[in-house]
Amino acid sequence: MHKGRINSTHSRDSDDPSGMTSSEKDLALADFRQETAILRKLRHPNICMLLAYSTTENFEVMISELMKCSLLDVFKANSLHNTHLTKRKQITYAQQLAQGMNYLHTCKPPIIHRDLKPANLLVDFSGMLKITDFGLAKIRPDPEIQENDQFLMTGETGSYRFMAPEVFRHEEYNETVDVYSYAMILYYLFSGKAPWCMDNGLVAVNKAALEGDRPFIPREWDSRLNHLLKQCWDENPRSRPPFRDILTTLSEFSQDVFKTRADSVAGTDDDATGCNCVIS
């Protein structure tokens, strides 16, 4: 017997107490079916696993593995308690997210998530980060086309604060939009603050897409981290690195960071700080 959480949606003709219109129900159902269709094919340690999917007359039900909290919960708890993720946790989460995204982008055909944000990144009870919410995910239209080619897909898809400029501008795009979103999450991980934290999401994406603005990088940050961020959120999608290269950079960065810390602080447990999440 396992404890779990059930995600479900009403079928189009059921008695839905949510007050959704018929068109809203259709859209929600389409997203739900899209998510299950993609999740059922995915198996990776950094992808939230679909355990079961069932349909009844009035409901379609999806059961996924139980997780502890979201990365957004972690950020909120740290803000509430005025604490920060340890350097080890920052780098570990960055690597785990990149590993999951590298898997998605190297699927055949590649899968574009299109809504990467802290709320869609879950942490399990062992501290493993996993990607979830594939309702907006898109299988790349033609897997035979070259990696850097772009496609006409739905504009303004995803969450404004983490949305790539070309998506907001309704331009053609490809999987590099996920790399841009990754950069914003990476910034959040290391700064402890959301990109453009003083602005709402719509103002933030306007600054990024129409003014070419990017979050301020503190001068004291490691130059390799600075360079990686600037590559990943580059205005030109073709200049953004694939996740396999991001993983290489993070591996080299982490080895140097932890070697330096081990030399200067021998015997310190850098993982002692938890996420302080409260799960009810």
UniProtKB/TrEMBL annotation:
Which protein are we looking at? Protein kinase domain-containing protein
Where is the stretch described as Disordered? 1-23
Among the Pfam families in the record, one is Pkinase
Query: Which species does this protein come from?
Result: Attheya septentrionalis
Q: Which GO terms describe its molecular function?
A: ATP binding; protein serine/threonine kinase activity
The record's annotation in InterPro entries points to: Kinase-like_dom_sf, Prot_kinase_dom, Ser/Thr_kinase_AS, Ser/Thr_Kinases-Pseudokinases
Ranges of residues in domain Protein kinase: 1-254
Which SUPFAM superfamilies does the record match to this protein?
Answer: Protein kinase-like (PK-like)
